[in-house]
């Protein structure tokens, strides 16, 4: 891995940012209707899990360094 690329082109960085945003979005959910709030929580948990998996995939598939 001697070639470098800008940080914003990294799949790992992108997936990590999505994970952080999804986690923070879960903190600010209002306690409205139980069904809607539960669905939103579930969707955010799925998004967080998928973006975490994408971060791992991006790191495994990385061929260049972040510069």
How would you explain this protein's 3D organization?
The chain is mainly alpha-helical. The chain has one domain. Strands 1-2 form a two-stranded parallel sheet. Helix 1 packs antiparallel against helix 2. The longest helix has 28 residues. The N and C termini lie close together (11 Å).
Order of helices and strands: EHHE
Structural class by sheet pairing and helices:
mainly alpha
Shape: elongated
Oligomeric state of shown chains: single chain
Spatially, the strands of the biggest sheet line up as 1-2
Q: Which radius of gyration do the C-alpha atoms yield?
A: 15 Å
Number of strands: 2
The averaged pLDDT comes out at: 77
Distance between the termini: 11 Å
Helix content: 55-70%
In DSSP terms (H or I, runs of 4 or more residues), the helix count works out at 2
Short overview:
Helices cover 67% and strands 6% of the residues.
List the keywords.
elongated, two-stranded parallel sheet, 67% helix, 67 residues, mainly alpha, single chain
Strand and helix map with partners:
Layout: E1 4-5, H1 11-27, H2 34-61, E2 65-66
Parallel strand pairs: 1-2
Helix pairs in contact: 1-2
């Amino acid at each position: 891995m001697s070639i470098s690329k800008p940080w914003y082109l990294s799949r790992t960085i992108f997936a990590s940012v999505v994970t952080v945003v999804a986690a923070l979005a879960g903190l600010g959910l209002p306690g409205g209707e139980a069904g809607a709030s539960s669905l939103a929580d579930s969707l955010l948990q799925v998004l967080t899990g998928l973006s975490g998996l994408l971060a791992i995939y991006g790191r495994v598939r990385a061929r260049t360094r972040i510069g």
